[in-house]
Specification:
alpha/beta; ten-stranded mixed β-sheet; three-stranded mixed β-sheet; about 40% helix; lipid metabolism
């Protein structure tokens, strides 16, 4: 097995399920990232209890009924909803004036988030980047989404953060009983990148009727939670900003960190909440990609369940898959890491392919113009390891070039209500019928 393939497999455990490893999206450049000295780092760890030990020794027990009524401590319950609840989802998007505009959905994918960052840059340079009414993100997509929401002015930051960081700028091995790594470098970058000014800019866009949604997984309930990040940002800069203090900013940062917290690899994030009866609890949240590779709508909505059927207000959705979906051959070493990495890599591809099949069926059924960009055979480079700057730069430039030339999102042909096919602008027409879905 080649060194590059072996390195990629070794990194797969860390990059799988959208591994927050590429949370570089909100990172500062390595040159700006100053790690604490040993004594300072030990002090930081002493102040931040291990999530697992905290769970065993300090968490107040609570029931399913209590967590069902809980809301973030000292904040409105409206800043989040159950991601698998069609009615709650419909209310959030139904109240958004701009939800009829195009949507952007960004998947997980670790360092491969450079692909989405490049597409956004290429779109801006081509001068035809849509003003998305709704943007959603999970895992590395959660790191990109806030910058995508602000607009082209954040392209330079995305490029820097997806072409110049290394794994050392995100995590270090050891340090907690809850995970294989300690993500203090990532948390430090998020704290410095998610600023009051960023929240103010997001709140301004939210006020225009646009929505920024980020998904996490609540471990206790085994359900997705979708956070209205624009609503949270608005609390920090609105007329009641003094009432909420720094709590919206703190929660915003925690959500971004949680959405990238790959189970067992990165430690989970404990979010303070209060039940309807006033009981203060701590909810455990981790990687949004654990539930699905991306978030477009509740599963019941996409599957057409009787209680979840609805049509999205948007007529066009752009979906960026930060991953390669085609199988790749490589001899796998007979080690725990080798077997786990190879199997997880295959599982993530299968999960994403399944999600895409359901989404395409939904698009065909509701006459939705679904445009999908993925890392396909047009890009043949392999990363020698997690967060290799040369690989990420090449992938960024690939996505940028595709978007500039209009070839990032293939064209779709959607069956009209009258039974004929309507051709839509783009490259490489793909008829969306049952036979096409079966072939995909």
């Amino acid at each position: 097995m080649s060194a590059s393939r072996r390195g990629a497999i070794t990194g797969a455990v860390l990059l799988a399920l959208g591994l927050g490893l590429d949370d570089g999206a909100l990172a500062r450049s390595p040159a700006q990232h100053q790690r604490p000295q040993a004594a300072e780092k030990l002090a930081q760890k002493a102040q931040a209890p291990d999530p697992l030990q905290q769970g065993k020794q300090e968490r107040v027990p609570f029931t399913a009924q209590e967590t069902a009524s809980a809301k973030p401590e000292d904040l409105p319950s409206s800043v989040r909803f159950a991601g698998d609840d069609p009615a709650a989802f419909q209310k959030v998007v139904g109240d958004a004036r701009a939800a009829h505009d195009s949507w952007l959905v960004i998947s997980g994918g670790g360092e491969n988030g450079a692909f989405a960052a490049g597409i956004l840059s290429g779109w801006s340079r081509a001068g035809n980047r849509p003003n998305f009414g709704v943007i959603t993100g999970v895992s590395t997509g959660a790191l990109i989404a806030p910058f995508a929401f602000v607009g082209p002015s954040a392209d330079a930051a995305l490029k820097q953060n997806y072409t110049e960081i290394t794994a050392a700028d995100v995590f270090e091995f050891g340090g907690t009983n809850a995970a294989l790594t300690d993500t203090w470098p990532l948390k430090d970058r998020i704290d410095k990148s998610v600023t009051p000014d960023l929240l103010k800019a997001i709140a301004a866009e939210h006020a225009k009727g646009r929505r920024l949604l980020v998904a996490t997984t609540q471990v206790e309930t085994e359900r997705p939670v979708v956070w209205d990040m624009g609503a949270i940002a608005s609390l920090a800069s609105g007329p009641e900003a003094q009432k909420y203090g720094d709590r919206p900013l703190k929660l915003f940062r925690e959500i971004v960190l949680a959405s990238t917290a790959v189970p067992g690899v990165f430690p989970p994030v404990m979010i303070d909440a209060v039940t309807e009866g006033g009981k203060r609890i701590q909810e455990m949240h981790d990687d949004g990609g654990s539930m699905a590779p991306y978030y477009l709508a509740p599963a019941a909505t996409l599957a057409g369940a009787p209680d979840g059927g609805m049509k999205l207000p948007a007529s066009t959705v752009y979906l960026v898959i930060n991953n390669k979906l085609t199988p790749e051959f490589g001899l796998v070493p007979r080690t725990v890491l080798g077997v786990l990495s190879g199997t997880v890599s295959a599982a993530i591809k299968a999960q994403t392919q399944g999600a895409l099949a359901i989404t395409r069926a939904y698009a065909a059924r509701t006459h939705l113009d679904l445009r999908v960009a993925e890392i396909d055979g047009r890009f043949d480079k392999v990363s020698p390891g997690p967060f290799d700057p040369k690989y990420m730069k090449a992938l960024f430039e690939h996505g940028e070039a595709l978007a500039k030339s209009g070839k990032a999102f293939p064209e779709a042909q959607i069956a009209s209500p009258r039974g004929r096919s309507d051709n839509l602008k783009g490259a490489d027409a793909v008829p969306m019928d049952d036979r096409t879905l079966a072939q995909r």
